[in-house]
Amino acid sequence: MRDIYINIVDGTPRKIVAIAKRYPSGHYVEPHEHRRGQLMTASEGIILLTTPEGAWLMPPERGMWIPPGTVHHVRMIGTVEMHSLYIEADAVPGMPATCQVVGLSSFMRALMAEALTCPLEYDLHGRDGALMDLILCEVGRMPALPLSLPYPAHEPLAARCQAFIAAPSIGETIDDWCTGLAMSRRTFTRLFRAQTGLSFANWRQQACLMAAMTKLVAGASVTAVAGELGYDNPAAFTSMFKRAFGAPPLTYLKLRANS
To answer: Which residue, 30, 42, 107, 219, is the most exposed by fewest CB within 10 angstroms?
Structure first.
C-alpha cells in the first residue's frame, strides 16, 4: 500500500498532486522521502515531524514544508485530517532547503482544500490547471513560524537536549548544562551555537514553545502548562507565547480556556 501511495505521489505527470488522508492519534509514519516537495496542513490535531537535523511541530491550520528528498518520519498527536500538496522541485524557485513550519492564510487553506477536489491528472488548460498555477504563486509567500528545534551532532550535547525535550523547564540555565557536561561556560556557548545555530536561551524557549503547543492542543489549561514549564505565573508564559506568535495561546490556537 505504501508503494502504491509513493507511486501516485512521484509518478503522476502534474506539477502538483493533492492528497488527503486521516490518521488516528498516535499513528507513526516510518522514515521515508519523496521526490517532490510536500506542503501539508491539518484542520485538527498536531503533526510532529523529525529528521536527522531536528524536529518540527505543526499545529492545526498551519503548514509544514518538507523539501524534496528529505528523509523524515511523522507522529500524529490527536486525530489528524491531513491535506498535502506534493510539488515538483522546479515548480517554485527559491523554496527553503530545510523543513519549515509556515503560516497559511485563509486563502491558501481554501486553495489547498479546493485542490483536493481535482482529479490527479487535472486539465492543465482548464479551471483546475489555473487553480494549481495560483497555488504555485501563493506557496512562496508563506511566512516561517518558530516551531523548529535543531539537534546537535555532538553526542553528549544531543543526549542532554533529548533529556530536556522529555522534561522541558524554562528555569534550566547554561550553568546547569555546563556542570552536567563538564564544560566551561565559554566552551559550551560556542559549541551550542555552532551545533544548533541558536543561542541556548533561544533553543530552550523553542523547546518550551513546542511542548506548550502539544499540551494546549491536548486540552491543558494555560495555568497548568505555565506551571509545568517552570514559569513564575501564567502571565509570564502568555507574554513569551505572544512575543513568539503575535497572539495569546488560546487566541492563537482557537481553543477555549479550560482552567
So the answer is: 30
Q: Scanning the structure block, which residue is given the C-alpha cell 528555569?
A: 171
Helix axes 155-166, 174-181, angle to 10 degrees: 130
Dihedral sign, Cα of residue 85, residue 94, residue 105, residue 151 = positive
Give the distance, in angstroms, between the CA of residue 238 and the centroid of all CA atoms in the same chain: 21
Is-contact 195 154, C-beta < 8 A?
Answer: yes
- Distance between CA 78 and CA 134 in Å, rounded? 31
| 171 has a pLDDT exceeding 90 | yes
DSSP-derived pairing of the beta strands 80-87 and 54-58: unpaired
Query: Interior CA angle at 48 toward 247 and 211, to 5°?
Result: 50
Mean pLDDT estimate for the chain: 88
Kindly state the cell numbers that stand for 101: 513550519
When pLDDT is averaged across residues 146-175 and rounded to a whole number, the result is 88
CA distance 9 to 209: 33
Three cell numbers, residue 89: 522541485
57-115 pLDDT, tens digit per residue, is 888 788 999 999 999 999 888 789 999 999 999 999 889 899 999 989 999 999 999 99
Contact status, residue 140 vs residue 87, Cβ threshold 8 Å: no
**DSSP H helical ranges for the chain:** 2-11, 106-115, 127-139, 155-166, 174-181, 185-196, 200-217, 222-228, 234-245, 249-253
Look at the chain and count its residues.
Answer: 259
Radius of gyration, alpha carbons of the chain: 20
Instruction: List, in sequence order, every residue forming a beta bridge with 102; answer none if it has no partner.
Output: 63, 144
Instruction: Judge if pTM exceeds 0.85.
Output: no
